[in-house]
Amino acid sequence: MNIRDLEYFYQLSKLKSYTDVAHYFQVSQPTVTYAIKRLEDHYACQLVEKSSSNRVLHLTQPGKVLANHAREVLIEIEKTEKAVERSKKNLLRIGLPPLITSDIMKKFGTHDEELEIFRQSQLVQLGSRDLMRLLVCGDLDFSLLGSLEPISHAHLTSQLLYKKEFFVIVSKDHPLADRKEISFKEVLEETFILLDEHHVHMTAFKRLNARFDDLAQSTVVLTDSNLVLSFIEENLGIGLMTDLTLFPEYPNVVKIPLVEEEKTVFYISYAYPNEGEPQALLSSFIERLEKCEK
């Protein structure tokens, strides 16, 4: 079977027009027609029913089955091509969420062999949600990740490294600063200073807020954790973060645990595509990660 034929068919299932598919691939319309005919001959069944104007009336049942599988096949082929190209260049693309990476690097030594992977890799620094998407699409060979549940994905090998707890973060001058624990219900009318939707922190906030009918509506959304902490330190609002972010340069912020029934866990893991064994350098890095103090 020709992969290009499968690409034509998959686009036909979406665009419903032989003419539009031909324009999409910049080929002649007969090229698309012959490709579909070859697939129908291969599977010995009709895949599409079309009108006289070369528009697809609908896919047959076998056509629907093939379209669903074609999407998965084409995604896997694209991921494979990316991985092979990186392998040919001896290049690793590694995802590093800044907050998690900063915390993990504190646990590393300064030995050259422990840092070698960073010199030989292309480093992608984004929030965990974006890194997870890139990993699944085949654009990364490995990533550290933060999540609200243990990672489980059919196409990824993953391992939990350790867990952190979310806290309500306030200025030491805030009236709540002396509290030993707090319910989210008590801070619904506060202004929240939050990391944006590219970070798992926003999802944690939305989940807690949903338990109280989304009554917390006053929010300031930022992209940088240092700016979030600066705003909180100036008592311009409160935050919802893990203590990964409580850097020494912000001594005037206080973390308050959530009450037991509202505690939210931040899972810190690594993951990589499970198509094959990691390269030797990556395997060594993984071994070192797993020795990190929990």
UniProtKB/TrEMBL annotation:
GO molecular function list: DNA binding; DNA-binding transcription factor activity
Keyword match Methyltransferase: no
InterPro entries registered for this protein in UniProt: LysR_HTH_N (IPR000847), LysR_subst-bd (IPR005119), WH-like_DNA-bd_sf (IPR036388), WH_DNA-bd_sf (IPR036390)
SUPFAM superfamilies attached to this UniProt entry: Periplasmic binding protein-like II (SSF53850), Winged helix' DNA-binding domain (SSF46785)
Keyword Disulfide bond among record annotations: no
Keywords linked to the UniProt accession: DNA-binding, Transcription, Transcription regulation
Gene Ontology cellular component annotations, sorted alphabetically: protein-DNA complex
Domain of life: Bacteria
Annotated ranges, domain HTH lysR-type: 1-58
Family: Belongs to the LysR transcriptional regulatory family.
Name of this chain's protein: LysR substrate binding domain protein
Organism: Streptococcus parasanguinis F0449
